[in-house]
Amino acid sequence: MTVQNNPRITEQLEAWVNENKGHAVLGTTAQYIPALGKVDPGKLGICMIDEDGHYYCAGDTDKEFTLQSISKALTFVALSCHYGLDFVLERVDVEPTGEAFNSIVPFEIHRPNKPFNPFINAGAITISSLLPGRNGQKKFEFLKGFLEELLGHPIEIDKEVYDSEWATSHRNRALAYYLKEANFLELEVEEALDIYISQCAIKISVKDLALLGLILAYDGYNPITKVKHFSEEIAQVTKVLMVTCGMYNSSGNFAAHVGIPAKSGVSGGIMAAVPPKLHSQTYEFRAGAGIGVYGPAIDVQGNSAAGTMMLRQISKEWDLSIF
Amino acid sequence: MTVQNNPRITEQLEAWVNENKGHAVLGTTAQYIPALGKVDPGKLGICMIDEDGHYYCAGDTDKEFTLQSISKALTFVALSCHYGLDFVLERVDVEPTGEAFNSIVPFEIHRPNKPFNPFINAGAITISSLLPGRNGQKKFEFLKGFLEELLGHPIEIDKEVYDSEWATSHRNRALAYYLKEANFLELEVEEALDIYISQCAIKISVKDLALLGLILAYDGYNPITKVKHFSEEIAQVTKVLMVTCGMYNSSGNFAAHVGIPAKSGVSGGIMAAVPPKLHSQTYEFRAGAGIGVYGPAIDVQGNSAAGTMMLRQISKEWDLSIF
Amino acid sequence: MTVQNNPRITEQLEAWVNENKGHAVLGTTAQYIPALGKVDPGKLGICMIDEDGHYYCAGDTDKEFTLQSISKALTFVALSCHYGLDFVLERVDVEPTGEAFNSIVPFEIHRPNKPFNPFINAGAITISSLLPGRNGQKKFEFLKGFLEELLGHPIEIDKEVYDSEWATSHRNRALAYYLKEANFLELEVEEALDIYISQCAIKISVKDLALLGLILAYDGYNPITKVKHFSEEIAQVTKVLMVTCGMYNSSGNFAAHVGIPAKSGVSGGIMAAVPPKLHSQTYEFRAGAGIGVYGPAIDVQGNSAAGTMMLRQISKEWDLSIF
Amino acid sequence: MTVQNNPRITEQLEAWVNENKGHAVLGTTAQYIPALGKVDPGKLGICMIDEDGHYYCAGDTDKEFTLQSISKALTFVALSCHYGLDFVLERVDVEPTGEAFNSIVPFEIHRPNKPFNPFINAGAITISSLLPGRNGQKKFEFLKGFLEELLGHPIEIDKEVYDSEWATSHRNRALAYYLKEANFLELEVEEALDIYISQCAIKISVKDLALLGLILAYDGYNPITKVKHFSEEIAQVTKVLMVTCGMYNSSGNFAAHVGIPAKSGVSGGIMAAVPPKLHSQTYEFRAGAGIGVYGPAIDVQGNSAAGTMMLRQISKEWDLSIF
Fold it and tell me: Which residues form a coiled coil (chains A, B, C, D) (predicted)?
């Protein structure tokens, strides 16, 4: 893989990073997870990768951060890959909900026979508990191996973030015990939470996110290594989820103003998949791309404040919306 | 406009109509609106139109029916066209909600400063009350004129359906008085409901729906008449709404399994917009299309039972998903 | 009936009025009903009546005000009187709810087969619609006649308050249409609301409220006129409702700190029934009493701010709690 | 203490036990706690005690059972006794809620600054965590000591029931983690649950319940031993809670039809406090009484089916209602 062969694109990205950096003041770092709360909220970085493997990077791209909710999309893919989409869709629905990502209300009111979707915490914890493996450790190792294969390099957990979240996740424990009572979990609560909090604490870079976005854009196929990692069907459902539920409770607004399937995390990361769009009149990225963004100041919905605004501008200028 | 120049496509559609007709037993006609409840639940028809104006029709395509909730998408377009998208998005949000289309719960719990989206009844009644015109009648005339211009022919209200809904819409009245208290309505409740129930009762055919779908697929442009009816921006937000909220509480499943922006109504109609997708390997409709479907037996979510299954098959076979 | 034969009691009441007057600053007059919003919030008055018909009055007792929610208790009695308690309890439950008096949420969530209790608006509007009479006017006349018989004098509606509430009761209309859809109402919505808003607008004095409280304390019997107006059973259920739901969402706190069955209204009135308590060590009112209070500055729950505090003091000093 | 000096009363109680035994078929033993689910649902027993220490017992009175939710009333008293009522009421409210005893919905919707009342699980677990003692074990020992002093004999935990509930209380764990996040608990979740589940598993007899009821009826005073255990104020608030929230979601109906402050548990036990009522025309128990009931078949609300019906009859016949 080579980095950036087209300096014009990189210059353009650098200009947009500078233009949007200031939007970080509209957000703040995630205060409820101490280890996340203390990072520099002013950072903003982006990497894009095209189908030939060229990376175009601008801003703060060297800092690693944790996957947080971005992991929800990847665990969904991993599980679907192993057991097939039908197995997964029998256990987690794919309907958006207007409630908060950690809400118990819709469960108690509607008593659904499965969580509403895999991108709310209830669905994500359920998905994690279902991963293949005879115990929590094996299940997490499966996920880790799957991601390492996609990325082509080893990954690690940020132990400080893990510890920080483990100690403060009363709300997730409440949710998980609720799921346990509903018989949605295949593991004991503490084991299921261990996987979930571990996957949230995986360290990642914007380059990694861009590559993952590209593989999703190419329906499970890595156009650089020519490896087919997962089926078109799994990729499509994942992108549907990214559009309808990927950006917490502003998914609708993100779809309306950006229109790129994306998944965000409270660390400030965003993974976006730009599918090919040959009929577009814009020259750049008509053959699709992957995007990784990092901007740790998050807005009230939980999305990178500056990152969201920057993607809005990029999508508009380069006509990247799927709509 | 000429009807069907490619007999192979029509034959294929006829085969799919026959294959999917039986799925009508999974639904029933809308019993809570007497005039809708008494139609033949076994009917199923489809029309597709391509960018050259060729129609491909199969099954029961001569029966007219009423727009019902499909009108919500059109009123949103009409209002946005007149006042601009910013004006509308200040007054109605574009976020999906997991609650029923006529639910009051999210309002009372969250006390939002605008309805969640224009495709739930709360948002739709609000939109209708905001249409240009100094009273209810003028406002409805504006909408009617807008639709007639899109369709190129006069439209009419089904008086029996209108009367039936007017007399039984206690729940919509409850909702509208709730909206009135929240200061969302520009009209008195009865006037706002009059427009809303009128727009639901507009008579339409699957050919009409196909044409409207085509104009949305072409971002507000009619490729046959070469008329630009509304902006790309309005079309895109409308398609986002169709994907995230267009099929009531199975919008997520429809997006996952069909992947075409669509809006349904409890009359059993569906309007779908197939955008161009030049990179698709399938020959048919790579340049986009509009689809109109009619199948009056609706499932528990409110969507045509047979129509939904048929679209699932068509989308898969012809690779029409935007995801 | 003679007024006050025991000057010591009246002096004591006057002292307590003066001590508690200042608590009015903890509340404000009901702003959402314009005609109520403009009265002097500083007023405070009380009347007590004993079983011999002696009145003990202090403070602002000459000003008439409107019944508002106090009417809910009286309509319940009137309806039960005519059709029997079983008839009524089949149509309205007697369970407290933690939700607001005008909430639609519990209906949509629990879909009960009857309103939770007759003291929330849903139950009260239902009760009003069920009153005997072949139309709304006859039904209201029945209620009016019933109250006049209890009070021994004609009553009138405050037309300004009626008009004010009629024009602004969007939320009650929303609720009533909801009830209509659930088939709880025996009348059309507008007719049912007319009775409900009329009963709320009935003019009353603290002396009247005291007498009504005494009749409830004496289980439907007026110890002065020796007339039995309604059954012990009806009186007891009414007092249960007063304890569990009579003071809106601070009924529990009122019961804990005052312990007297009472019903309040947003006009600032309170009707309280002090049952006989012969084992009490206090001399005053061991044979029971009725209490009427007026203090138009209401707290966030909707109860007279100064009136509630004054009743707390009186109950404590004279040991009037039923608990 | 002597057992029954008035054979007529005992005979009457025996007749009522026999008359009401059959109502057990309207309920079933608590299936969600395996150790409770397997007891004989047909049993029914009652003990009453008067102010002179005479017991009147009938039916199945020798079988011990567990306190379950009855313990909520006792823990509230114990905590109030030690820290004072003000301390407790700052940390738990006394308002009834229409939601289920283990509901999380009202917390998420209303975000109250304290649980609604100590008789829903949220309030009860909070109360237990606040008991005096530097850890969970000390806190439970405090409660145990308090109860043993009231009862005059040692008490024990039913280990099988404790184990059964500990293993299956996912929902209570969910609730407790929710409370932990809201900062309501003074202990770690597992420790707080340990006390709560221990108190629920305390073995008790109908004679014990009768004595506890008598002490509550006498406002914290044991008229037999002449010991004042707790203040009148604490007793009164406890009785208010018993009336408004003591019988789960049929507290209102129980108050309307029985009218005696009571607390039930899913084991089928009921503790009731009959205050003195000298003005009553009935001879029996005009000076007050305590009642203990056991009937393990519970209705959908969680109350002893036969026990509730029997108390309804007894209250009516002997005029025991406080209303």
Answer: none
